[in-house]
Amino acid sequence: MKRLNPSPGRLSAVVGILWLILSAELGGCALIGTHDADASNAARPPFAAGQESARDQLNDGYSDLYSNVKGLSKIDKFLLVKNESADVEKVVHDVTDYSGQLADRLQKLTHDFPALALDRPTTPPLIKAAHAAEKKALIKRYAPIVGDSGKTFERGLLIRLLVIVDQQRFLAQTLARRESDPALSKIMSGAATRFGALYNEIDALLKKRFYR
Fold first, then answer.
1. Contact at 8 Å (CB) between 84 and 152?
2. What tens digit of pLDDT does each residue of 127-141 get?
């Protein structure tokens, strides 16, 4: 991976873009800590009563997943300014590579399944405003060390990726369980399994490098 030595302004911009990829585009998933809740809700009706149809609710999830994996697929491009170690680089590559594949597959599926939509808005304006405030804080916090190869950056990146990948796992799992079309359900089940494997890969590296 090519290493660069960008200007302070460029570094700030990169932090902002990285934040957008890792946070703003992933704002629709509030699935952390839902392991037990998901299991307890398995016997409930697949959709809550409301104005949206079941397909609309599914498409909310598909749109969120698509936005998320598109963001994840770009992470390695914005780490060209980093000097991350080989094992961290491999994990990032594995996440971005699979995320890109899934984003492409979801896009192609819209041609085979006309009812599938990936363009539904999933982030309310208030949440977007909160993301903007978080972005400013993140730039201020990390701009001085962007470009460093220190463990502080790598640990923070891996922790953030661990959370995001886990969110995608449970989002895909929920879509698989609630999807009425067997083919789409199978695809989402496979995605949940793959994200689970990525979670284990990141978790193992975190424990090996930082939490012995």
1. no
2. 778 877 876 776 665
